[in-house]
Amino acid sequence: MTALHAATLERRRVLSRRIRLFAAATISYNIIEAVVALWAGGAADSSALIGFGLDSVIEVASALALSWQFAAKDPERREHLTLRIIALSFFALAAFVTVDSVRSLSGGGEAQHSTPGIVIAALSLAIMPVLSWAQRRAGRELGSRTAVADSKQTLLCTYLSAVLLVGLVLNSAFGWWWADAGAALVIAGIAVREGIEAWRGDTCCAVPLAATADEGKDGCCPGCSGTTSTSTAPQALGLPTVRKG
What we know:
0% strand; elongated; 245 residues; 75% helix; mainly alpha
C-alpha cells in the first residue's frame, strides 16, 4: 500500500466519522425542535408549526438512516436504500402538511399567535445553515450522495424556518391567520421537490476528495447531474467498485 493510498483511506475514515458526528448533532437538535414545534403548533392550531415539527421528526429519521448506512463497513452498499428512505420521508411530510393546510384554509381552525414558535424558528434559522454546509462539504469530499441528500434535508429546515418565521410574524403582527396555512403549503412544495431529487439521486454532484474551487454558488459543481455514479469514489481511489443490487 502506497503512502498516498494509505493517506486517502485515512481521510475517508475521518470523513465518515465526521458525517456520523454531524448526524448525531442533527438528531439531538431536531428532537428538541420537534417537541417544541409540535407542542406549540398544537397549542396555537398552527399548520405551519405542526408541519415544521413533523419535518424535524423526519429529519431525525433521515439522520438515523444516514448513521445506519455509515455504521456499515461498506456504506455504499446501503446508499440506495438510504436515499429511498430520505425521499419517502419528504413525501410523507408534504402529504400531511398539505392536508392540514387545506383543512385550516377551509375553516377548520385559525392559527393563533405563538411566541415559542417564533423563537424556535429563529433559532433554527441560525443553526441549520451551518450544520448543513459542514455536512454537505464532508459528503461531497467523501463522494457520498446520501450524506449530501441528508445535508439538503438539513438545509430544507433552514428554508422552512424562514417561511415559518414569516408566517408566524405576519399572523402575530396583523392577525393574518391564513399566512400560517400559506407558509405550510410552501413547506409542502419544497418537500416534494427535495423528495423527487432524493429519489432520483439528484443530490448535487459528489466529488470524492477533490478540490472545490469549481463549485457553484450553492456548493454544487456546474453541470452536475443525478446520473453521477456512486461508484466514482472507489474508482477514483483505486478501490474495488461495489455493485448495488
